[in-house]
Amino acid sequence: MRRSRAFGLLAASICGLGIGLQQAAAQTAPSRAAAPSAASAAAPVRFLVVASQESVLSASTAGRFAKVHANLGDTVRAGQVLASFDCAEFQARRDAARAEAESARVQYEAKLKLQGLQSAAEVEVELAAANVNKAQSQIRIFDAQLGQCAFVAPFAGKVARVHVKVGQGVNPGAPVVELVGNGPLKARMNVPSQWLAWLKVGDRLQGTVDETASACDLKVTRVAGRVDAVSQTVEIETELASGAAQVLPGMSGQIRPPAGH
Predict the structure, then answer these.
(1) Is 167 left (phi over 0), alpha (psi -120 to 50) or beta?
(2) Strands 45-50 and 252-255, how do they pair?
(3) C-beta of residue 146 within 8 angstroms of C-beta of residue 97
(4) Total Cβ atoms within 10 A of residue 28
């Protein structure tokens, strides 16, 4: 009887100890889970420098390059011709279309005169007018094709890459010249979503560019309207308010949250 009572007391003690350990573990679990989140919010964030304007000029039709004026690193102005196709065939076709249009116009005027002399029917005049419109449409088609022969810089900037050479043939969609604008540089990055508790447009962040080891001042200009559910980060865009000297698009660096955040 005494042995069974002692066994009961021992079992109750073990159960009580187990419940106490579970409660202690439950109390310490939140603090352990919060530690990595706080650490990630304070960790440095990498950014990428991008140009305000970038463009890859590509071929809209097949052709062979007769001239390539652009070279790597060249400074170009808006509207400058960077490369051009050999469009002698298109020019010849346009000249032929112009001749046909002139012929159609003469025939139309002759039909009008004959109609005034009661020697031409109304339908003959209408057919002559349709031939004029058809020939003029052909001219516009060849003008549009000739307009695609020249690759013109859409904005002032620098040549980042030249993909073609003189005499090279390309298919539609092939890249020709990559261009970056002369405007102010930007930096894009994905920051922890916890930063949204204090980060807002207009805030300034201090960063360091890896390639130049120079400090830079980044002003927040845009904050994405959605948090990435997987990485728990949000994309922001900044402008290089200072320290942009010798910084080129494609360079990268890192920032840290301001002290106290």
Answers:
(1) left
(2) antiparallel
(3) no
(4) 10
Q: What are phi and psi of 67, to 5 degrees?
A: -140, 140
3-state secondary structure 6-38: HHHHHHHHHHHHHHHHHHHHHHHHHHHHHHHHH
Beta strands in the chain (DSSP E): 45-50, 54-58, 63-68, 75-76, 81-85, 150-152, 157-162, 169-170, 175-181, 186-192, 204-209, 214-223, 233-242, 252-255
Whether the CB-CB separation of 171 and 58 falls below 8 Å is answered with no
Angle formed at CA 185 by CA 182 and CA 190, multiple of 5 degrees: 150
Q: Report DSSP state, residue 247.
A: -
Helix (H, G, I), strand (E, B) or coil at 103: helix
Query: How many helices and strands (H and E) does the chain possess?
Result: 3, 14
**Nearest residue to 162 (alpha-carbon basis) of 69, 86, 53:** 69
pTM for the whole structure? 0.65
CB 79 within 8 A of CB 218: no
226-259 confidence digits (pLDDT tens): 999 999 999 999 998 876 678 899 999 999 888 7
DSSP 8-state assignment for residue 228: B
